[in-house]
């Protein structure tokens, strides 16, 4: 597994903790970081000493989603792109996944939580899915999983408008398990992960498999469909206008698109 100062990986007491550590860039994720995340999950999947994986960020920021400049210089042009490799590794990960979320969780910072089994949020957490605002479409199976979780209207509000929603709303919708002060979120996630790690791994694996088995092939198919649409839309005028506007620090103009 490759090392990275921006994706910290630490294993202790059968718990692998993966920390987003690019706070100066709001933990925005680059292609290289997605590669490291995928490597970490692959390592955890094959390591009998790892029973649970925890994702965490900083007390003020979980992740601002994709690093736009890196995204433009290294676009995910095919299904083997690092971001899509990460999504497949995440969505098929057999062991329990726990997340501690504080501050903004943007784009994939929110959609990745749909594949976690336990999510604990600081009361400063803010979730947003601004794909349409970037001329793109949802990813990570969120076009399927969000309506299943929230109902069509609430999912449409989150995905079509792309406006942030609070930890309280996320709790009401079932996206997260509990809200705590930000300084306590990581510790709570670790405590719950250690509880899981103390249980028989065979029971954890089989229970998660049974819970997900009916949806698993549908989720895989939806992620593949989203990847196809995402790649196509990335090359279309709406996305070009959105990203150009971002770089030029102006509001995008979609009036003719």
Architecture overview:
The chain has 257 residues and is α/β, with parallel strands linked by helices. It has one domain (1-180, 200-257): 2-enoyl-CoA Hydratase, Chain A, domain 1. Helix content is 47%, strand content 15%. It contains 11 helices and 9 strands. It has helices spanning 31-46, 68-73, 82-91, 108-111, 142-150, 152-161, 167-173, 182-197, 201-212, 216-234, 237-248; strands spanning 7-12, 15-20, 52-56, 97-101, 104-106, 118-122, 126-128, 165-166, 178-180. Strands 1-2-3-4-6-9 form a 6-stranded mixed beta sheet, with helices on both faces. The chain has a 3-stranded mixed beta sheet with strand order 5-7-8. Strand 1 and strand 2 form a beta hairpin. The longest helix has 19 residues, at 216-234. The protein is globular, with a radius of gyration of 18 Å. The protein starts with 6 loop residues before the first strand and ends in a 9-residue tail after the last helix.
First-to-last CA distance: 43 Å
Query: Which architecture does the CATH hierarchy give at level 2?
Result: Alpha-Beta Complex
Q: List SSEs in N-to-C order.
A: EEHEHHEEHEEHHEHEHHHH
Our count of helices gives 11
Rg of Cα set: 18 Å
Strand order in the sheet with the most strands? 1-2-3-4-6-9
Classify the beta-strand content into a percent band.
Answer: 5-15%
CATH superfamily, by name, is 2-enoyl-CoA Hydratase, Chain A, domain 1
Overall morphology: globular
